[in-house]
Write a structure and sequence with these properties.
The chain is an alpha+beta fold and about 270 residues long. It contains seven helices and 14 strands. The chain has two domains: about 140 residues, Fructose-1,6-Bisphosphatase, Chain A, domain 1 (2-Layer Sandwich), CATH 3.30.540.10; about 110 residues, D-Maltodextrin-Binding Protein, domain 2 (3-Layer(aba) Sandwich). Strands 3-4-5-6-7-8-9 form a seven-stranded mixed beta sheet, sandwiched between helices. Strands 11-10-12-14-13 form a five-stranded mixed beta sheet, sandwiched between helices. A two-stranded antiparallel ribbon has the order 1-2. It binds D-MYO-inositol-1-phosphate and calcium ion (CA) (2 copies).
Length: about 270
């Protein structure tokens, strides 16, 4: 049996120290440190170093736990406890000297997320939640927004590195709503989902995201009373590369007007 409260405290500290490392290193980043994994998909040696730091420290918290990480510094194997890690979410912002960027850590037990921590080191904002525990931003409780409709909504989204036909259709549907509501691309999915959780924005949608982008943020959002689904309205939003995250109140309207736009689910 693990002590989830103790683990949560430790993970919060580990996310903060890793975030501080990212912040310090951003100031010293040179053009030669920046590589491309694919078109507009940047990576640096800082991503890898931060991931190794996280793997080492988190590995000490639960002996035998496995890891699912973006940079693949450890090989994923199935296990009862799995850490799902994005050491640097928002690398495109990071390499341009921009913000936000974050550290995202989730703990999965038997395929259920039980802990999520997202830290933005520049804003010094720590979002955190654990099963049966409080959901907090820098220690304070929060809730999702009360906004009911797309009209006058404040909606986050992102453009996937691999934009398939479905993803492109969704972006075109969103463009059809430009006169009604305000859209924002912040560039760190983990943070943008937490913004929905704390009521700063009303919803966020994105195709093509990976488990490490969404595992911590979606858990935090659901703990705050929000709703997360895949594009069919189902629960497969961590591993299925489809996410609609909202305050719950405008979820259906987003599904109808942006995700499906009149089409019925397959
Ligand atoms: C990316 C960010 C971005 C999203 C991309 C992600 P990365 O993660 O979350 O907001 O639009 O699809 O891959 O590559 O910076 O870790
Ligand atoms: Ca990411
Ligand atoms: Ca990343």
């Amino acid at each position: 049996m693990i002590d989830i409260n103790k683990i949560r405290n430790n993970v919060e500290q580990i996310a903060c120290s890793t975030g501080e490392f990212l912040k310090e290193q951003q100031a010293q980043l040179h053009q030669s440190d920046i590589e491309l994994k694919g078109t507009r998909n940047f990576v640096t040696h800082i991503d890898t170093e931060a991931e190794k730091m996280l793997v080492k420290k988190l590995g000490e918290l639960i002996p035998g736990a496995t890891f699912l990480t973006e940079e693949g510094t450890v090989t994923y194997v199935d296990g009862q406890y799995t850490w799902i890690i994005d050491p640097l979410d928002g690398t495109t912002n990071y390499v341009h000297g921009d913000t936000p960027f974050s550290v995202s850590v989730a703990l999965m037990k038997d395929r259920e997320i039980i802990l999520g921590v997202v830290y933005d080191p520049v804003a010094d904002e720590l979002f955190s939640a654990s099963a049966k525990g409080k959901v907090t931003l820098n220690g304070n409780s929060f809730k999702t927004s009360l906004h009911q409709t797309l009209t006058n909504g404040y909606i986050g989204f992102g453009i996937p590195y691999s934009l398939d036909d479905r993803g492109e259709k969704i972006l075109k549907n969103a463009a059809g709503q430009f006169r009604k509501c305000s859209f924002r691309i912040k560039g760190s999915a983990a943070i943008e989902i937490c913004y929905v959780a704390c009521g700063r924005s009303d919803a966020y949608f994105h195709s093509g995201l990976s488990p490490w982008d969404v595992a911590a943020g979606t858990f935090i959002l659901e703990c705050a009373g929000g709703t997360c689904t895949d594009f069919s309205g189902g629960r497969n939003y961590i591993f299925n590369k489809e996410l609609v995250a909202s305050n719950g109140k405008i979820h259906q309207e987003i599904m109808d007007k942006i995700i499906n736009n009149g089409e019925t689910n397959p």
